[in-house]
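Entry 14. Structure prediction run on the chain below.
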Amino acid sequence: MAYEDLKCISLEDVPLNCKCRVNFIDMDFESRIRLYDLGFVPESVIVPKYTSFLDSTKAYYVKGTLIALRKETGSKIKVNLLKEDKA
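Output returned:
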């Protein structure tokens, strides 16, 4: 399956069930390392799956597991949207 990179946006802005690839994390060193340990490393494919009732957190499918992040954290993770190539 081939994918085409579209544009760089924050992870928080990715619509549910749309694949994206981590580009970089705009946080301090310790926070970046914590996210790396959870699987949010550059080039990882992430899929937003669920959002909380009050829209304060979102659950993401990453490396075979669901991980919830606060809105503030998701906004500091920059990703490229991926579009499935139909050809």
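The longest helix spans residues 29-38.
Filed with the rest of this week's runs.
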